[in-house]
């Protein structure tokens, strides 16, 4: 408590937030803005959302319906389904977030590369395919019917496949 009876934790303060993709840009901003206000520097909006979730952003938002729903927890960087949970890297979470964005659609490799790596060119297809391979494995571990399908000549999309129940009568 301060002498005037206020709790310092309840006081409002200014926080300057800067988004800069390269470390060199973040260093330059930190040097230029030093002493102006508390400063939070992040590489992208995904990183900012993980650090400071907004009021509209639930900690866990379902992405597919049903009892086998895939739930992404962007705050903890995890995916959950049927009581099972797997940890996701930043790149995996960003890619899965793109694919689950409504409306569900086909994303080109170039679009996914820009959205996840925040850069043009490079080994777009190979980067995305490697990440998708790891994500498919994790989705399978969760036991969800959700998977990532390749659309020949176009790109990738999220789809839900129900495994048929095999039984004997």
TrEMBL record:
SMART domains: Trans_reg_C (SM00862). Residues 59-160 form the OmpR/PhoB-type domain. It comes from the Bacteria. GO terms for biological process: phosphorelay signal transduction system; regulation of DNA-templated transcription. Residues 59-160 bind DNA. GO terms for molecular function: DNA binding. This is OmpR/PhoB-type domain-containing protein.
């Amino acid at each position: 408590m301060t002498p005037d009876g206020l709790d310092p934790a309840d006081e409002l303060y200014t926080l300057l937030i800067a988004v800069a993709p390269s470390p060199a840009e973040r260093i330059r901003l930190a040097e230029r803005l030093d002493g102006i206000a508390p400063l939070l520097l992040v590489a992208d909006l995904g990183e900012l959302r993980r650090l400071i979730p907004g009021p509209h952003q639930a900690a866990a938002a379902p992405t597919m319906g049903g009892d086998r729903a895939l739930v992404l927890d962007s705050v903890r960087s995890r995916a959950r389904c049927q009581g099972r949970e797997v940890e996701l890297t930043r790149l995996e979470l960003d890619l899965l977030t793109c694919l689950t964005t409504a409306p569900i659609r086909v994303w080109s490799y170039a679009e996914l590369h820009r959205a996840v790596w925040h850069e043009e060119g490079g080994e777009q297809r190979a980067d995305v395919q490697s990440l998708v391979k790891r994500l498919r494995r994790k989705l399978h571990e969760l036991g969800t019917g959700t998977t990532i399908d390749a659309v020949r000549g176009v790109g990738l999309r999220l789809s839900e496949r129900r495994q048929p129940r095999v039984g004997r009568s």
